[in-house]
Amino acid sequence: MANWSRNRGIMRKRAFNVLHVRARPGLKTRGVLIAGQLALPVALGRAGIRANKHEGDGATPRGRFKLRRLWWRPDRGPRPRTLLPLRPIRPDDAWSEDPGDRRYNRPVRRSAGKSGDRLWRNDRLYDLIIELDHNFRPRVAGRGSAVFVHVARPGFAPTAGCVALKPGALRQLIAHLGPRTRIDIR
Prior knowledge:
- Helices cover 4% and strands 38% of the residues.
- The longest helix is centred in the last third of the chain and has 8 residues, at 167-174.
- A hairpin with a 2-residue loop joins strand 1 (4-7) and strand 2.
- 34% of the residues are buried.
- By secondary structure, it is mainly beta.
């Protein structure tokens, strides 16, 4: 699985360098994530993988992205073991998907009834979220927002543009991720 390094005589797990995501031939909404010797099935966006992503197109963006941080629901499980920066999800956390909002493609606080992709969800899809740096610097309005790695729907139903894994596979994976890990979606 992960590489091991010796640090002061202690064996420690090192993070994966690159996660490779590829669509399955003939199945644009299904794919595989390869990390070291792991090969994990994933759900992709309903429009498959596209290089020219736009807000609301349902495509998973093609490219190589940094894993910015891991968000998790503290009421649904213990603090995850990972080398990524961590942030607990609060009930008022959301993500701005409005290209006209100055906070577009950024985390925001939302009160009840306000728009935005809520991170505190009942369907468990966002119990664990890996935030990607897609459309981060420079941030371009309308080029896509809220692209995450998160928990898959039952039956690996397509996402709105994210990469999704089974909960157990995602937990297994995040234990081997760190600040230098990249995700390569092709």
